[in-house]
Design goal:
The chain is mostly helical.
């Protein structure tokens, strides 16, 4: 039964070659786009999972009247460590 359906499908595909080529090209483009979106989502959702203790990691930013700055003064890390014993380590990226 399946062989019969397969033969009929292949016969119809060979009769309508242009229509078949357009459909296969559309399916290929759609699947490729879907895979690209999945790879992008995988990257975006997993780039912050580098540490098992991620709940303990914080980032400090500075806010001015006009904008939010990702830079803080250099002595801020030492000051915060001396005032808050919960801070175990700090780092600064330039």
């Amino acid at each position: 039964m399946f062989n019969h359906f397969l033969r009929i499908a292949l016969r119809n595909l060979s009769k309508n070659r242009v229509y078949t080529a357009i459909n296969i090209a559309g399916l290929t483009v759609g699947l490729a786009g879907f895979i690209v979106v999945l790879l992008y989502l995988n990257h975006e959702l997993s780039y912050d999972s580098w540490s098992p203790e991620l709940q303990k990691v914080y980032k400090i930013s500075s806010r001015t009247d006009e904008e939010m700055l990702e830079q803080t003064p250099a002595p801020l890390a030492g000051f915060l460590k001396s005032k808050s014993p919960e801070i175990v380590a700090s780092s600064r990226v330039q």
